[in-house]
Amino acid sequence: MTDISITGHTRLTGLLGSPVAHSMSPLIHNEAFRALGLDYVYLCFDVGEETLPTAVCGLKAAGIRGFNLTMPNKNKIMELVDRLSPAAELIGAANTVVNDNGILTGFNTDGIGFMQSVRDAGHEITGDTMTLLGAGGAATAIAAQAALDGLKEIRIFARPTSRFHRRIQVLTDKINQTTDCRAFLYDNADQKALQNSLDTSTILVNATSVGMHPDTGESLITDPSYFHKGMIVSDIIYEPRKTRLLSLAEAAGCQTLNGLYMLLYQGAEAFRLFTGHDMPVSLIKQKYFQ
Prior knowledge:
Blueprint: E1 11-17, H1 25-36, E2 40-46, H2 52-62, E3 66-69, E4 83-84, H3 86-91, E5 96-100, E6 103-107, H4 110-120, E7 129-133, H5 137-148, E8 153-158, H6 165-178, E9 182-187, H7 191-199, E10 203-206, E11 232-235, H8 244-251, E12 255-257, H9 260-275, H10 281-288
């Protein structure tokens, strides 16, 4: 692998979140830039919600071409952009921002990335039922895209005290009003409802940060009886690659997938928005996802 050559014309892209030191996004994007001969660079910036407004203002002034958002910034960024894509507006969160001559537009590529990762793993869940854990930006993106892609039913479990609860409630109503999918919202403390939901679900998705490095011993589900053989269990976390949730699910005979390919495919869409070029996905897979 050759070093990145920085010139006076190099366009800056990056990732804003906290923590971000573990992110694979710089590897993926910078390898794609090299492969296509594009004069871009992708960097990580450890920025939380409190400093996000200042960081966005500075990066905009510096002429950044675009940036991605990860936890905890996907909802806060909505207040800081000039325009929103239809998907970002529906979801209520953005994970990608493009700067066009000082005009910031927010997009959401998370849902696209998740659904493509499920298909890439060999699963077709159209017409099936999903149990979804979480109420933040990733959860809303996954729920919206899953509904648009033809799932029959989505059962969302979230804390009523979460600051995102009202947003996921609004999204649930929108799904029921505008798609053929039926969406239901439950308190994640209702373990009986969760167990009943899992009994008839094709796929369980953890869209929270529970189990993420460094708290790798945590899991929202610890009782092996909640899993049934053949169920797909997905965790959007990719560090560690096998969370405690996925380990428990595998032991119960479930098919599992982590967040690596969701990262890849949401990143591929962001790459296209930044550069106008398609990411060389096959090359990136071979180099970093084998």
